[in-house]
Amino acid sequence: MSSPKTNTLTAIAMVLALGLGTAPAFAENGVPSFASHPTSNSSIRAGITAFEKGDYAKAAFFQKSALKSGLKKSRKLAAYSNLCAAEGAQGQLEAASKACDAALKLSPNAWTALNNQGVVQWLSGDKENAASSFASAQQAADADNELVRQNALLSSAATLAQAD
Q1: Mind listing the pLDDT tens digit for each residue in 48-76?
Q2: 81 and 116 in contact (C-beta within 8 Å)?
Q3: Model pTM?
Q4: Architecture of domain 39-163 in CATH?
Q5: What is the pLDDT of residues 4-47, one digit of tens each?
Q6: Domain boundaries, the chain
Q7: Whole-number Å distance between alpha carbons of 66 and 79
Q8: 125 dihedral zone (left: phi>0; alpha: psi -120 to 50; beta)
Q9: Interacting residues of 36 by C-beta distance below 8 A, sequence separation 6+
Q10: Which of 1, 29, 49 is nearest to 119 (CA)?
Q11: Are 69 and 100 in contact (CB under 8 A)?
C-alpha cells in the first residue's frame, strides 16, 4: 500500500507527464496559481504589476485604492478579483475569500474570480470546493486558457491521490 505522500507525488508526476512540463510556478510546488484580471484603470494595472513582481501588499493597496475611487461594475469586478489574489498570496485567506465573494456577487461566472476562489479554498485546505471552483472557472473561461486548465488538472490529481 502506498503512502499519501507517495500518492500525491505520483499524481503530480502524472499531471506533468500529461504535457504540463512547462506549467507556471505552481506546478513546481504543487499549489494552483492565482489569475489577474486586467483592465484599463491605472490603479488596477499598478496592482497587477506589483502582484507579478511578488509585492502582494502593494498589489492589495492598489486594488483597495481603485475600489475607493468609485469604479464601474466591470472594473470593480477586476479590482475585487485581483484583491482576492493579493490577499490570498499574503496568506490572508479570510480577507481573500471576502474579496472573491464580492467579485462573484458582481459576476457569478467571472473565471478569474472563480479561479482565485479555488486557490483560496485550496490554501484553506478545502480541496473539494477548490476542485468545484476550478471546474466552474474552466467552464467560464476560454477553451484555451492554460492557467485554468492546469489548476483543474492539479486539483484532479490531488483528489485522485487523496482517494487512495
Answers
A1: 999 999 999 999 999 999 999 989 999 99
A2: yes
A3: 0.81
A4: Alpha Horseshoe (1.25)
A5: 444 444 444 444 444 433 334 344 467 899 999 999 999 999 99
A6: 39-163
A7: 7
A8: left
A9: 48, 51, 52, 81, 82, 85, 112
A10: 29
A11: no
